[in-house]
Structures are given as C-alpha cells and as structure tokens.
C-alpha cells in the first residue's frame, strides 16, 4: 500500500497519492469496458458500507450486483439455480469477499487444465500406439473373423506320474520343512540322550 501513499503527516495522517490511484482506476475502467456484455461483470460486496456503491455501479454500467452474502457454489455448482460464470469479478474488499475470488480462481484453473488436455490431440496418441512393432510386422497375419475357428498345431499330451496323495501324511504346518518318516519305532520317548 505504500505506493499509493503520497506522504505521512506528523500527526500520523496519510495523504493518498492521487496520480497513482487515478492510473489504477483508468486501468480498471479499460478492463471493464473491454468486456463485450456488461452483464458478465459481477460486482460483489458483503459489507454494508460497500453495498450501496455496488448497487449504484451496477445500475450505471449494467453489471450484475451481489450486495450482501455471497452464496458458495454460485460460480462452480452447475446444478444450482443461481449458477453463472462471470467474465470479470469486482470486489470491494478482497479480505471480506475472499470466497468469490477463490471460487472463481479454482474454476478458471479447471478450465485451463481442460483446455491443455484438449490441446493434446488424438493424433499425437494414435501415431504412437498404432505404429506396428518393427519385429512383428512380417509374422503377424490379420484375422478377418474372430468367431471363426483357428488351426492350432497339435502337441502330444504328456503323461505325468500319478501319485497317491492319500498315502502321504497330513501336514498341519505347511510352512515347516518335511520330516523323514521312521519305518520302525526304536527306544522309549524318555530317552533323549
């Protein structure tokens, strides 16, 4: 804010730099005039002190006023009856009216991302994915009808040894290493040596 202050008096009163403010007012006026339809300009104020100014500005320029509480989702929720997308937002106090600013900024960011995704066309992907692999072009044959039967080379069927699984002992712990089965019982269970 120091750039908009001309000087400070000894009694702590700040004098506004009118030349600097006039330049910024002209810049804002040029931005508002550049909008083709004045109704696409949204003027917002939630404070009582700014509501009268918003209503007078909207009446003079044809902008859409929002004096009072801003309903969240007005710029983003398309299901809402009050949904609309303004081309320009004018707020009286950015700190108090932060909701419309952040909501519109998020919407603009989403629009920019969608435009960037559309910029990458299908042709960019088609050339990359539909090009045949260099080693597979000669050996592949086109199939005209997928429902038709296909000749498969015959392979001899191998006979695997049949094991009697019922003869094997049931293992409680499948992760344990297999233990050797003793064929005859020797000794007593109390002799551990």
Automatic annotation (TrEMBL):
One of its GO terms (molecular function) is structural constituent of ribosome. Residues 106-193 form the Small ribosomal subunit protein uS2 C-terminal domain. Keywords: Ribonucleoprotein, Ribosomal protein. Pfam families: 40S_SA_C (PF16122). One of its GO terms (cellular component) is small ribosomal subunit. Residues 170-193 are annotated as: Disordered. InterPro entries: Ribosomal_uS2, Ribosomal_uS2_C, Ribosomal_uS2_euk/arc, Ribosomal_uS2_flav_dom_sf. Gene3D superfamilies: Glucose-6-phosphate isomerase like protein, domain 1. SUPFAM superfamilies: Ribosomal protein S2 (SSF52313). GO terms for biological process: translation. Belongs to the universal ribosomal protein uS2 family. This is 40S ribosomal protein SA. The lineage of its organism: Eukaryota, Metazoa, Chordata, Craniata, Vertebrata.
């Amino acid at each position: 804010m120091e750039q908009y202050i001309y000087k400070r008096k000894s009694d702590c009163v700040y004098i506004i730099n009118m030349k600097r403010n006039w330049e910024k007012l002209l810049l804002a006026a040029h931005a508002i005039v550049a909008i083709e339809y004045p109704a696409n300009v949204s003027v917002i104020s939630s404070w009582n002190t700014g509501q009268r100014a918003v209503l007078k500005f909207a009446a003079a320029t044809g902008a859409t006023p929002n004096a009072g509480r801003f309903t969240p989702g007005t710029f983003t929720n398309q299901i809402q009856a009050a949904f609309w997308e303004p081309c320009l937002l004018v707020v009286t106090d950015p700190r108090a009216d932060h909701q419309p600013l952040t909501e519109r900024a998020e919407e603009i960011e989403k629009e920019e991302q969608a435009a960037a995704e559309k910029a990458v066309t299908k042709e960019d992907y088609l050339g990359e994915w539909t090009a045949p692999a260099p080693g597979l072009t000669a050996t592949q044959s086109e199939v005209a009808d997928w429902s038709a039967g296909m000749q498969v080379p015959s392979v001899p069927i191998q006979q695997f040894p049949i094991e009697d699984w019922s003869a094997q002992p049931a293992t409680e712990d499948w992760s344990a290493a297999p233990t050797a089965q003793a064929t005859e019982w020797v000794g007593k269970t109390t002799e551990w040596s």
